[in-house]
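User: Okay, second chain of the day. Same drill as before: sequence in, structure tokens out.
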Amino acid sequence: MALDITAFGDAVEGGNVARLYDTTAEHRGDAAALESHGSVVGHAEFHAATAAFAGGLHELGVETGDPVLLYLPNCPQYLIASVGCFRAGAPVSPVNPQYRARELTHQLTDTGATAVVTHAALREHLAPALDEIDADPAVITVGDEMPEGDIPFDEVRGEPTTVSVDGGAVASLPYTSGTTGTPKGVRLTHDNIRAQLLTTVASRTDELTPDEVNSLVWLPLYHITGFVHTALQPLLRGGTLYLRSAANWEAEAAMSLIESEEISEFVGVTAMYADMVDSDAFGEYDLTSLVQAAEGGAKLTPAVQEAFEGTADVSVFEGYGLTETTGATHTQLGSTFGPKHGTVGQPLRHTDCRIVDGSDEAVPPGETGELLVRGPGVMAGYHELPEATEAAFTEDGYFRTGDIARRDERGYYEIVDRKKHVIVTAGYNVYPSEVEDLLAEHEAVREAAVVGVPDDRRNETVKAYVVPANGDPETPGVTAEEIQEFSLERIAAYKHPREVEFIDELPRTASGKIQKYKLEE
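Assistant: Same drill. Structure tokens below.
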């Protein structure tokens, strides 16, 4: 049977969140914790490495409360450094490994990092950013051929250390994904991460033993979902992580791993599932070891979902969460009445939700409004942005998600759209996701993104960017007029796209979110 959360004892009560893993390592020491391209690290070895790394940071002069920037691809050292920073009491600030000098300079300056953990393959992008800042952080590098003065990752070892910190101390300082502009630092505490881990572990409905918990980690670890849900949660349960680089996604390789390693858990963005279903090898691999399959970033098209579920014999469930909530607030997994497609399920335990109108008054079931959430996973605030923090919360402590939602009588929530994405055309509100979902039903459309564009008469009008099913925007196999007619037959006229442009792919963040501001620009 899976580890019972009561086994974690005093570690659930507060303080350093890394102590939760002490019990797991004690019970699962000889079992594999991480596998990366054939290299395996056991739970006891991983536990010892994180404690030694924490001691090594202190020997380098990194003190409790000093931020450490983590600029690495998916690899075992990423997780060793992260949990090691928790143990050292040093807030870890993950960085998208696709970032380059300009973006790195912002995060280095904003955090005031005293150390940076990076990889030799990324070092050339870090160098000009370091030249731009006044500070001189220690640079810890994974790999060979590093510049003189860098500290090899394997040499950051010291007396095994886990400091005592208050549960309200900042453990992680991720930055918002940048779908709408300059990223903001999000202050996640030890208590935030502990609450998320224990809540999601307690919400598990399967009967998997730790030996059967095999998580395929292909989402980027710098992202909150990849880090908390595909990595830390299975680790805490005593399972094994199969780490692969998010930059080197291969659909057939993923299906091969699911079969050969009997993967039980996979969380992917929508494009990953579409790639697997579209692969010539789809159906050649046995995917039925999957007990949990989840997706995010955008809704799956019905055709992709039906094809994957039929082959893998597993339901692909949706969830909802934000960086500011340390991951999930809602999930179909474990919902009272089972999964309900088209929704993100019900709130997790200890998560309180409201849907409100523009005056912060609650709306009845079935009506749309902004989703507010409150609970132990909600951030302490934005880093050194008191005005933004104040604006993000109501007077009674609810976090304003900025998402438009509705719920039904049974407490299932549906995310309708981002509040900032709502298109106001001739006085009517248009939710882009409604139009996008409709367009995805057209056989010639692989996916679509809808934005508002300026219009002298209507203030805004609806424009659709369409990725054709054949992948060729020059000869997409359908005309803009046919797309418009298809829409007019199925939704109100004011909602239909008055402009249609075919493109080869939608701009996305590394976590799969569509960067609509780039389309609007």
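The mean pLDDT is 92.

User: Thanks, on to the next one.
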